[in-house]
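User: Fold this one for me? It's NAD(P)-dependent oxidoreductase.
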Amino acid sequence: MKVVVTGANGKVGRAAVQALLAAGHEVTGVDLARPVFERAVEGAARYMMADLTDAGEAFAVIRGADAVVHTAAIPDPTANPAHVVFRTNLMATFNVLEAAVRFGVPRFVNISSETVPGFFFPERDFLPDYAPVDEQHPIHPQDPYALTKHFGEQLMDAAVARSDIRCISLRPSWVQNEDNYEQNLGPQVRDAAVLSPNLWSYIDAYDLADAIVLAVESELPGHEVFYIASPDNVGGRDFAEILHTYYGDRIELRPLSRTDTSGISSAKAQRLLGWVPKRSWRDYLGADGTALVRS
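Assistant: Here's what I get for NAD(P)-dependent oxidoreductase.
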């Protein structure tokens, strides 16, 4: 298929482009960085520069696509003014989806976020009602980033109601790759008391990319939402024990699939997408939280 990947220069976008190419798809990457004028490498992704908050530019890059993977976004509500985060993320999503609907693109994969229930950036304290968190958990977004991701999912609902497009929204947990495992997760591996705002959950960028490929190739109708998180928690600890130790009875503990389970469940993605995560923090970090030496 001809697949357009927005935000192609980001951590998620780069991994998605490579995974889609490896799966045999023809990929066009889209981002704000200026293109480099060199001879194209055979089998590499095509690249286009575009500001997706501009409807004309969004329509220009989506035309002719068989599928769209929308990863482009400001990923953190704290490094830009709130109105910039909200306007950029929401308008980019609206414009790209509108173009896909108008051009009859059959599949749209929307990269949403684990923050939708209220994780990570709340201005007032937030705890989930229960754990592991799944797709049935109530939605309580507070910050502009989480709000745009929630509204993005609503845009998907509207798109499938008014057209034949099929949409999948993936809610990744905190995305890690070989460059940042030690910095981000090392402190939690060493000490569970370094509380994680998402109940010690995470996802490897390349496992997420595998889920994106499955979503692109899926024939699921309508709009489905999936959490994407590694099945184990950071540190590989007894989840029931650490949840009670640090949160007491404030979070209801639901049945667990494994002792060292993640605080976010990806059972639905494994069941309906056939997604099988292959990577763990243990592939990158030792028990002391420092990076493993790679040969």
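One thing worth pointing out: Residues 39 and 46 are 11 Å apart (CA to CA).
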